[in-house]
Amino acid sequence: MSVSNDGKTHKSAINVKYGDPFPKAKRSMELYNKDYGNVLVYIKELGTPYWTERMTVKVPFRYYITGIIQPNNKYLEKKKQGKSNLRVIQGG
Q1: Which sign does the torsion angle of CA 5, 10, 40, 45 carry?
Q2: Positive or negative: CA dihedral 32, 33, 35, 41
């Protein structure tokens, strides 16, 4: 079992072209998430693949984010907002 960074299960779908490997359940892989950037994910379960275009299928899946490899600006701004710049000053 893998530990999630944010405590949420995310849903997404990945396009798989002819000849590319399918994602596998209960494995880790790297992908891009619009809220976090490049992340390492643990695939919890796969859905039923369906055809989208010629020689391409879309595979829905659920996953946990286990690590942030390269954060994007949106994630960094959100992280900066939660940080306080208060300091303790000793009086004399």
Answers
A1: positive
A2: negative
Predicted TM-score (pTM) of the model is: 0.73
86: exposed, middle or buried (C-beta count within 10 Å: 0-12, 13-18, 19+)?
exposed
- Residue 63 has which token pair? 């996953």
HSE toward the beta carbon, residue 1, CA cutoff 13 A: 2
Q: What is the pLDDT of residues 29-69, one digit of tens each?
A: 998 988 888 999 999 999 999 998 788 999 999 999 898 89
Cβ–Cβ < 8 Å for 64, 40: no
